[in-house]
Specification:
Largest sheet: none
Radius of gyration: 17 Å
Shape: elongated
Order of helices and strands: HH
Mean pLDDT: 93
Number of helices: 2
Organism: Bombilactobacillus folatiphilus
Distance between the termini: 30 Å
Strand content: under 5%
Structural class: mainly alpha
Helix content: over 70%
Number of strands: 0
Protein name: Phage protein
Length: 59
């Protein structure tokens, strides 16, 4: 996970702690899940590119 995503997740955690309304906390938690999922997909795509570059059969 890059520094920007870590910072963003920390900011969301701080907002969640200080948010009294359930709906707003749920929205912020959903944003955290989206960020984590995007980070996972980005890592998978980077690994796929690396794998394809080293697979000489697919050149």
């Amino acid at each position: 996970m890059n520094e920007n995503n870590q910072w963003l997740l920390q900011q969301l955690d701080d907002l969640i702690k200080n948010e009294p309304q359930y709906e707003q906390r749920a929205l912020l938690e959903g944003l955290k899940k989206i960020i984590n999922e995007q980070d996972l997909r980005l890592e998978q795509l980077q690994n796929e590119i690396d794998g394809r570059l080293w697979n000489h059969d697919q050149w």
